[in-house]
Amino acid sequence: MTFKRITIAFAVSVFLVYAVLILSLFYFYQGPLFMKTLLSERTLFSLRLSLMAATIATVVSLFFAIPSAYALSRYQFPGRQIIDTLMELPMIVSPVALGAMILIFFTTPAGQLIQERGTPFVFTIYGILLAQFITTVGIAIRFIKAVFDEIPKKHEEAAWVLGLSPANTFFKVILPLGKKGIIASSVLTWAKALGEFGATITIAGSMAMKTETLPIAIFMRLSSADIEGTVVLVLILLGIGLGLLYGVRLFADRDWIYKAE
Amino acid sequence: MSIAVSLKKKLKYFDLDISFACAKKNMVVMIGPSGGGKTTIIRMLAGLEKPKEGRVVFGDEVWFDSLRHINVPPQKRRLGYVFQDYTLFPHLNLYENATFAAVDRKEVDELFELFQIDHLKKRKPHMVSGGERQRCAICQALARHPRILLLDEPFSALDAITRRGLREELKNLKGKMSFPIIYVTHDITEALYLADELLPVVEGKIDNQWLTRMMNREPSSPAALRAAREPRLTLVY
Fold it and tell me: What is the interface pTM, i.e. ipTM, of the complex?
């Protein structure tokens, strides 16, 4: 076997593992049940809640991630290394631990004050948003920083020499050049938020028709041994996720994310 | 307007320590082996890099003065700077690139005609040749009405024939312009063809003997050989 074939064999074997997992869903798939479960009030609520929460959390994450990523990509400042390292918190700590940390924060005096005087987060939709924001913002910064790192510094310098202020350079040169990469990062952030489970259930609980997102609904169905129902919900989540990612892939392949020339 | 420069900075392999001046309508060609600090000097003039010590005075404007803590940002120096590569913004077409900082868009049309790229206005930079890109980059720099033009090996990534053509265009242009031009190259032919004044820069210092050494004598070290190889090759064309 040539080296090329060996590497391809590895890729195919990983693909097969995932494909078998997806195909095994259909062992318990029941056609009529699919529509019935999909159109049930509880599923529709979870679907709406999930889509809405993931979208809001992604928008807020991007609002913080885009300027942060630019700062980390371009500027030297005291504490940069520490900030850069702590951005990986959601990746090094398991989501449940992250959720526990959020929950613990809300039992401190400062957290309790926010709960009482501001917005209640524990067992509410705001808790879902917070959990999704916290688990995605660090990752979004990572993704977008990689996009900015790819853009040569020369383009900024050229813009400065041509008289553009740093802010104008960011909006007129850096953002348009990174547009495709930022869109791709946003979609991945959104998918990550949509699938978030550990932190969400820890902080917001699993109340049907209140804080039950799709991944939580899957967990609830599974724990009550409703395998057919679980299959339906997994298929819905899978359909949304794969459809979206495939769309991004097509979008990214069709045109360039960034080309040096 | 003329520019007077004196710069000092510790670089990785040597100390940069240089003083020179360039009068209006004059073209100073900085020549020397690669890695000798030429680009660093140009970047300091543009305000993209900060010297450790020194002064840069343009006319009666002080752009940099280490003693008085003056360092005018690149945006306020109003100069034209053409880089060796990555010169244009890849997301804009040639016309949008040239008008990016233009004082008057009509002038850009004239410049495009002068440089014979007006049929490429709508093309993105990756859809035209390297020579056409550099022509557009010169248009972009000129359209801003620069008070001084800095050209950092603008043609070195191009093939010899294109390079010779552009060299001639640049020489014609020089006659029409009233500002000082500082041109960086490691190509001796190009330097001799364009320069009003030659400034040989070797390891961060002016070395007036370098040019004579390079042309008269066999290179003494492998490094000198490397530096001299390309200029000699271009003499063939």
Answer: 0.86
